[in-house]
Amino acid sequence: MHDIQLTVNGKAERAQVPATMTLLELLRDRFALTGAKEGCGIGECGACTVLLNDVPVTSCLILAVEADGHRVDTIEGEAVCGELSILQQAFIDTGAAQCGFCTPGMIMSARGLLLRKPNPSHEEIVEAIAGNLCRCTGYEAILEAIHLASQRMQDGGAS
Amino acid sequence: MLGNFEYRKARSIEEGCQALADAKGTAAILAGGTDLLVEIRNGLKSPKLLIDCKRVEELQNVTLSPTATSIGANVPMNRLIEDRKFRESYPALADALFSIGTYQLRSRATIAGNLCNASPAADSAPVLLVRQAAIEVTGTEGSRTIPMQEFFAGVKRTTLRSDEIVTAIRIPANSALHTAFLKQQRIKGHDLAVVNIAGAYDSDERTLQIAVGSCAPTPVLLDPIHVDASNLQAFSAHVARSVVGSVSPISDVRASATYRNAILPTLAKRIVFQLLGDKEASSNA
Amino acid sequence: MSRELQVVGRPIDRADAIDKVTGAARYTHDLAIPGMLHTALVLSPHASARIVSIDTAKAEALPGVRVVLTGDGLCYQLGLYMQDKCILARDVVRYQGEAVVAIAADTPDIARAASQLVSVEYEELPSVLDPREAMDDGAHLVHPDLHTYDHMQGVFFPKAHSNIAHHQKIRKGDFDQAFANADVRMTASFYNPPVQHVPMETHATIAQALPQQRAELWTSSQSPYTVRHLLSVCFGIPHANLRVHVPYVGGGFGGKAGLGLEPLAYVLSRAANGRPVKVVATREQEFNTLPSRQGLHSTLEIGATRNGKITSLKSTYLWDAGAYADYGVNIGRAAAYSGAGPYSIDNCWIDSYVVYTNKVFGTAYRGFGHLEVLWGIERAMDQMARKLALDPAEFRRRNLLREGDTTITGEPFTPGHGKPQECLDAVAEAIAWGIPSDPPTAPHKVRGKGLAMLHKAPAMPTNTSCAAVIKLDEDGGADVLISGVDYGQGTYTVMRQIAAEELGIAIDKVHITWECDTAFSPYDWQTVASRFAYMGGNAVIEAAADCRSQLRAVVSQALSVPADQLILEGGKVYPSGAPDRAIPYSKLALGYTFENGNSIGGPVIGHGRCIATGLTHLDPDTGQGLPAQFWTYGAHAVEIEVDTQTGEIEVLNIVSALDAGKVLNPKLCVGQVVGGVVQGLGSALWEGFVFDENGRFLNPAFVDYKIPTAKDIPHHSQQILLENPQPGGPYGARGIAEHPMISIPSAIGNALYDALGIEFTTLPLNYERILSRIRERAEAN
């Protein structure tokens, strides 16, 4: 067993975990943050995407112990005090969520992108979510949402 | 939970090597985990101990000197790709890394991990081969440098001893070297290589060297070929024939040997034109 | 509808979007019940084998293991149309990947560890992997006892002592004579491999067996009432004793239309003395164990006049049903009655065989056989056009169904069917049909254009029905109860719009309880077949009318005004010309109270229903009858660019036109089309199961089963929605949910001919196949 400390959505957390527990399991089973999903277990679908120190990662391929001392942000931390973020609102406005299962991972990949590139090009947006599989939407509305969010943020919105 | 193993953070390279040695072949180094953890999940590997060296500072460094660039074993691929200087100095390597997996995977995956996984299709290998890179490793008995051509032993096997850790990839500087990388996939989205290929044109020596992946048990480095830029059609056909003659692709679930053999000469010729296209123009001017 | 619609037809956002973008949406994957056990499965490594013995002793002895089940103790035969399936393999295994042993344990790790301690001894048997071989006399029989299975009588016809689960016949006119007399004749064969739905949420079910023959389930399903019914029939439990909840569902596409993991979860819980048991498919199991879309071999013979009129069509379909043919038999039936495409063909014979093989079994998948048969039909249309030296669009125009024509089952084509020609013309114009493409981006690339038609009616039983209930709330809002499942299509949003429209209240005052619960939500058949907007919409309209009539009755009494002089608008009821006397719904929802305290009426609860009207069984010998509640027609046109050195294909543009009848919500409708087109691209260019010569599944993971990513979508796309009303449809709407995927491969195959002059007949049109044909042709020259 390992004692770990990490920050999850801005809050300090501690846990005692076996070596074999993944970050995805830690978030879902211990912290009840079920937004991140298991879609494949091998890092190919992106449904488990969260931010690790602001960087999008597939949490199914990270051990909980590796997150010790680090910051994790999940979809549950995207809205602040119940206020949807510009990104979340854009996803609603363009109809970017159909079944919604890929949506938390998509938004986390998009959030990671906007953190490192507030004004991304179309190619950069595509590359940022190319690792998030969606079977419902055909991606157009999702790409549009991320464009829209970055525009709105440039136009003076907060985030 | 993934499999059945213990985990240990190494605070230094020496500690990592010692832990490897003590485990007598039952431990593995956990870098990005994007290959290793998948293999553990799928039952292909079952180490009893994972040793994590990601906190060892020197393994995180990228140092550029006039004679060489040294990339620490734990540098994630995205960090290199997003570094403008690195992209400018090593465009083909940056292309090769960019072709690997997804953004999320590349934020964890490392070149060292890609090489140690030793897939015949390892995308970082062909460029490192044509750049004459070397792998710096440390074991309980000291450090050594393994030339890239000697690193792969077979499918998913390297020449590392069981107590050795890769510490850095060293790429000698050579301003006369112009490199390119091409990869054939089945889809534009993330994919393993059906075939991958790198070329390096040495404008001082006037030689072209090609390395090919996914067409043999290991990536293959061909001997340098003397360049004749006066007729690139003929030269590229000659290069293509050499390439096809040097490898023996198999059929697998990804592609048939026939397709690989058909793609190879096309990619080889494209690499020739990419590297020498303007040379032909200037030599014919 | 003469009045202007306030809510229906607007691009209203989904209310569920907030749950989805915040991570609050909970899917079966996310649910946990106290005391819940976790499951691992032991799968067959063989395509066909006898189970000699199963040793579970070590597994049972592992601490934390609560139940280990094998097929021996589970003598149930399951199926909606054909009861050919058991819960766990019994006596024999029929496909590699079939579940043989199930273990329920305290944690997933323990269950998995226990599964590795099970040893099964098999005796390999002959197998049959190709439906063509399975049709031969003397072929290995996947179901030697087929003749003993219960099945839906009068609708499906399994052939005893064969691998034929069903044979659907269409016999219209005299094919032999018409073909012999045709000016131009052709024959062509086509193949679709099996593919998988790939919902992002794999199948998942939690079941709890309760005392006194009751059970409660939470399941990722499209059909809560079908789950309830089949479990009731299988286990002899009264319907009302089975409670099925469907929370948010992460994609279905037909794969979750029938029974999946529910029976297994239930028997595990029963064996665990009622502890809840969760069964979740891994992604590999989703591919290898859970059902697929059937493969199809089709052969078409077509005869036409010199003037381009098709006189005769004969089709033979061999559906690769896999090891179990439950849904497969209905696909074989539906595809047969649709087997002439949207064309008028006087002489048409179709033989559609659903054939067992030793592979993972097929089930419903978006399009229900239509993508597969239209691959052949629409490719053959282009081939015939070329033989006749006619433009492919013009050839289709000469043959499209028109008023006065009949379909191959004898159904008259009417204006209410919509306008297939308008769809064709729209995409042809948008793609600049007939005008060559711009030059390609490199000398070794070529461009081409192709188009294809599509059509489909809901493939549903003649007694398909649906009900809706609307309850008014104290605040003047409304709750709508339905059992249609919204697994991404936007069902609930559309139902809310309809309820708001019909009740005359603001949409944000209309609520639909997300989770479907058979204890409270009224019956719906299944959320499949693109019929819920139509049938559920009609049921909601009727329920709202019922509410309005109750409101009128009370207000009529309250105000002493005849009911038919009352207006319902803006959430209020008032006499015509006297809006000052309005009574808001909030004062009526629970009855009306006079000033002196007397009360009349009561809680306003309206109900409505819709049942399929006028449908008939198909004649077993001729296929004549009326299977279709409505037809939806459409067309796609595509432009592609091919790299002739690598076989890589780039999709430059896809234009799609569908005759939607009435677009109930343009944002949702366009979303369905864009998504369906990309899913169709997957089938067209990359997807297909790969088996080795022993029937072992080789690509059950995303590493080697590729679906489109954001990098793989067309450079440009356009969606054209026509509105020629459907009689009987809510506001004239017809279903469009499956249709966008259908005929995408056909259009691309046709574009490839335009670009390369090569006929492709096998899917997927992957780079390797394209290059291989290019090289073959170069070598031949």
Distance between the termini of chain A: 39 Å
The major sheet of chain A is characterized as: 5 strands, mixed
Indicate the overall shape of chain C.
Answer: globular
Distance between the termini of chain C: 63 Å
Most extensive interface between two protein chains, with residue counts: A-C, 52 and 55 residues
Q: What proportion of the residues of chain A is helical, as a percent range?
A: 25-40%
Query: Please, what is the CATH homologous superfamily of the largest domain in chain C?
Result: Aldehyde oxidase/xanthine dehydrogenase, molybdopterin binding domain
Mean pLDDT across the residues of chain A is 97
Q: What is the CATH C level class of the largest domain in chain A, in words?
A: Alpha Beta
Which second-level CATH architecture of the largest domain in chain C applies?
2-Layer Sandwich
- CATH class descriptor of the largest domain in chain C: Alpha Beta
CATH architecture designation of the largest domain in chain A = Roll
Class from helix and strand fractions of chain A: alpha+beta
Into how many domains do the coordinates of chain A divide? 2
Strand content of chain C: 15-25%
CATH superfamily of the largest domain in chain A: Beta-grasp domain
Query: Could you say what the CATH topology of the largest domain in chain C is called?
Result: Aldehyde Oxidoreductase, domain 4
Q: Given the C-alpha coordinates, what overall shape of chain A results?
A: globular
Number of E-type strands of chain A: 5
Order of helices and strands of chain A: EEHEEEHHHH
